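re: ur question from earlier - yeah i can do the single chain one, its not a big deal. heres the input i used so u can compare w yours
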Amino acid sequence: MKKLLIGATFVFGLATSMQAANATTTSELLQYCTGEGGTNVTCQIYGQAVYDTYLATRNPKTAPSKICVKQPAPTRIQVVDEYIAWANANPANGPKPAAETILKFLEGVFPCGK
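and the output i got, formated as tokens:
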């Protein structure tokens, strides 16, 4: 049983490192969202997942919030449309992980303390 657990841990570790190496880039996400056959829904789901993960994993005691969405919040479609425009206007972000650029965008659009 111990060998099985060690083996499973090793395989999981390899899979995790491979996923990090194959992270969806901003350019790839834009293709899924705006390219032929792509939909805005893809960006909505991906963006919501990134934001939800940010909220769920950020420890408010050790990491102050950088994204503060004021109410009434814009619609998800509006935010996604703004993200797409922002990403297209900043092509240097194309090879960066999409999750990273989504958070950077959200920090700029929904800053805290202002």
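The chain has one domain: 25-109. not sure if urs matches, ping me
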